[in-house]
Amino acid sequence: MTTGLRERKKLRTRHALGAAALELAVEHGLADVTVEQIAEAADVSARTFFNYFSSKEEAVVAADVERALVMEEQLEARPADEPVLASVRAVLREMVGGADERWRDVVRQVRLVRANPALVPHQLAAYATIEGRLAAVIARRTGLGEHDLYPALTAAAVMSATRAATTRWLAADGEVDLAACLDEALDLLATGLAHPPSRAP
């Protein structure tokens, strides 16, 4: 998937606004941040801000959708005959490998959402967007329709597994590896959930 110069410029502006929104909200508290401050930090006008986001809350969780775009592009580039979950695993490994800065922002965003219930609907909307894009990629890879059950169910399961693994990783406060948590979650999906794994004594 290639993008033109205009589209790349728009993506850079969107990223700058999202990054500024998260940084300012973490530093000053969501309630004390204005759209004007976010726009100024990103070196654009407040009018331009509203070309990309409907509110500061939506901008704070924008990185979720950005990560979905990266995942979509990387899934499209995987071998066409590779099993779907194997492709997802490979892409997630690549995304978390050596991406300390990116995942530092994930931690900051999750903590901000937990402290500000007003952000929850916006994060859920972002998750819905991500899930829809993932289902579309899976549909294309399998030759199924976007509204068939397999792409929709697989995308929903992958999203749930990713959130559960990330939550576990955050709760462990650095004592477990994020890639290992994701691997375990995807292993459970691949083998089915009928029998829970045995716990070591």
From TrEMBL:
Keyword presence, DNA-binding: yes
Xref: Pfam families: TetR_C_14, TetR_N
InterPro entries found in the cross-reference section: DNA-bd_HTH_TetR-type_CS, Homeodomain-like_sf, HTH-type_TetR-like_transc_reg, HTH_TetR, MftR_C
Record's protein name: TetR family transcriptional regulator
SUPFAM superfamilies with a match to the protein in the record: Homeodomain-like
Source lineage: Bacteria, Bacillati, Actinomycetota, Actinomycetes, Pseudonocardiales
Gene3D superfamilies tied to this protein: Homeodomain-like, Tetracycline Repressor, domain 2
Chain ranges of the HTH tetR-type domain: 11-71
Gene source species: Actinomycetospora chlora
Residue ranges for the DNA-binding region feature of this UniProt entry: 34-53
Keywords: DNA-binding, Transcription, Transcription regulation
